[in-house]
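Sequence in, structure out. Go.
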Amino acid sequence: MNALYKPSLVLFFLLFTASANAALMISISDGTQTATFDDTDGNGIVGFDSDFMPGIWDSSNWSSVSAKGFGSSWYDSPYADILHLNSIDGSSSTGGTLTIMLSETDLTKSIAPYSGDFGGVSGGNIQFQTYVDVSNTIFGLDTLLHDTSVDNKGGFSGTFGGDLALGDITYSKTIVATIQHDGRRVSSFDYEIVVPEPTSLALIGIGLLCAGFATQRRRCK
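Output:
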């Protein structure tokens, strides 16, 4: 993997030591400065907007940065752990690299298939990555689960999926979006990953089949 896309070890260390107890956090970094925000009110939503939060994070390379993350506690689903990142980012004439990380701890759907999708408009190059961490560490980058690059300028979309087999544990999940612009450009995107619980989904399927069967029997009488 290109070194430009890897969040630096220094950045990770600073984020972890400052906010190790957070359940849902988002970070924004242009390689020189970093801003981190956690879900202080516990509603499962965390975000940042440079246009409405001046002075907290001012970058000469990125004129406008807006990012919002939704965690599993916001979706409040008994059947799936869901992590969703939405962002729109505009660079200055110099361009540069912007790394956005959204992380959530205390996830429990650890033995399940997963699926995800991404889409938006690229003003340069965007790399999407998902990591899981068995130590349940915020911003933990223990195991790479998904890695996709969008190299073309313009609209894009895609899906991905696989199997998650971490054992019966509680873990953290981190999604990373790395945007590269070579001048004054705008990129916007949505990136989501869903890990369902197979047992619960199977029960739902059985329930639907039973309901359909009962309906059919009533029609046949």
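Check: Residues 3-220 form one domain. The chain has one domain: 3-220.
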